[in-house]
Amino acid sequence: MASKEAIMCIRVTEESIFVAGCESNIRAYDIETGDTKLYEGHKGWIYDLQVHEERLYSACDDSIVIIWDVESCRMLYKLVGHENGVTSIAFAFNDIYTGSFDHHVFCWDYPEIIDRVEEKEMMRAEDIETRQFETYWKV
């Protein structure tokens, strides 16, 4: 069984099958080993999944698009702006397009979003390093 609830979308890459739908989690199945990964963070049904440049993008009924790290299952960034559930994601012309129940299509500047993701990741890494240093000195 691929999901506990009805499946709304699947995406297949060379390594994995991503499954989501009428629950707030995304499951990824390794094609070779059958191992499962779980992506948790949404608060509603997931309507669309896209995989682009080693990142997973999920569109959800909670009106948010989440960008995930495929390997670690970590949430990297949230695209917030729609007033209702996001139903679709597409990549074209170096942009991200999202469609929603709010009757709007948003165009997100892909390079700007990736810059934000990478900046947030650098800040996270520096925070972890600082905390390790503080812990070392307290000991």
Overall morphology: globular
Helical content, roughly?
10-25%
> Which structural class best describes the helix and strand composition?
alpha+beta
Q: Domains counted in the coordinates: how many? A: 1
β content, as a range?
Answer: over 45%
Indicate the CATH class. Answer: Mainly Beta
Number of separate strands: 11
The secondary-structure element order is EEEEEEEEEEEH
Helices, strands, pairings?
Blueprint lengths: L6 E6 L3 E6 L3 E6 L5 E5 L5 E7 L2 E6 L3 E6 L5 E6 L5 E7 L2 E6 L4 E5 H29 L1
Antiparallel strand pairs: 1-2, 2-3, 3-4, 5-6, 6-7, 7-8, 9-10, 10-11
Task: Provide an overview of this structure.
There is one protein chain. With 139 residues, the protein is an alpha+beta fold. It has a single domain (7-109), classed as Lipocalin (Beta Barrel), CATH 2.40.128.630. The protein contains 1 helix and 11 strands; from the N terminus they run E-E-E-E-E-E-E-E-E-E-E-H. The chain has one helix at residues 110-138; strands spanning 7-12, 16-21, 25-30, 36-40, 46-52, 55-60, 64-69, 75-80, 86-92, 95-100, 105-109.
